[in-house]
Amino acid sequence: MKTDRIQRLLAAALAVAVWQIASMAVGSRLLLASPVQVVVRLAALVPTAAFWQTVLFSLLRIAGGFLLALLSATVLALAAGRLRIIEILLQPYVLAIKSVPVASFIILALIWLKTAQLSLFISFLMVFPLLYTNILAGIKSADGALLEMAQVFCVPWKRRLRMIYLPAVEPFLLAGSTAALGMSWKAGVAAEVIGVVSGSIGERLYEAKIYLQTADLLAWTVVIVALSAGFEWLALRLLRHGFRMVGGVGRL
Fold it and tell me: Dihedral sign, CA of 35, 219, 39, 3?
């Protein structure tokens, strides 16, 4: 474990070194700010109240979109797992959401919704199909022999769910969540940039682009990466804890 951490730190240090070399090669702060310049800009931004208000604004909406997608995907996947007709009825919608470009949904959402709710809606929409299909795949992978035995012995549905379905769903849900968490931030911030959502991280990125403030642009990009990584770590930790709490691994 210690060796792995050292390797990760060395890889990060190498990436920063490559960034510094690229910045020196370009020779223009306007085109590519150096790591030092970005750190200086972050040091100026972080102590301000406006910075934390902006971070909280985007965090609450993007995290809310992911949690709403997780709840909806779980409920609908359970229903689809029990009734084939529900899976068939949902299939066109899931396929459409997976296929249509995110920009199209953002433009439509700008017509339908207030801009303040744009990132929540887009985050929800983009990660829902991934979570739904993964959870449904996990349900379908449940051990048929155990399910047959549970049916023969009239095991209650709640106990089947806890002892058979949840252990089957766990690896699928965790894998899907790992991908969905990063996607929720990319889609949510993209929606904020396109919609120029007031008070959001996306608005700060847009302003940095308009005024050619490359250091600000990269500083906010670093903030997004940090928030995405932190949220992913916390969400996966809570999911694993939740599976342990409800007896995701157990016996009939």
Answer: negative
First to last CA, the chain: 35
Provide the greatest CA pair distance for the chain.
Answer: 74
- Whole-angstrom Cα distance, residue 149 to residue 155? 8
Q: How many angstroms separate the CA atoms of 17 and 71, rounded?
A: 42
Are 200 and 119 in contact, with CB atoms under 8 Å apart?
A: yes
C-alpha separations of 169 from 24, 65, 69, 82, 228 in Å: 49, 21, 16, 14, 24
- Condensed to tens digits (0 to 9), the pLDDT of residues 165-219 reads 788 888 899 998 988 998 999 999 999 999 888 999 999 999 998 988 889 999 9
Name the token pair of 87. 């899976």
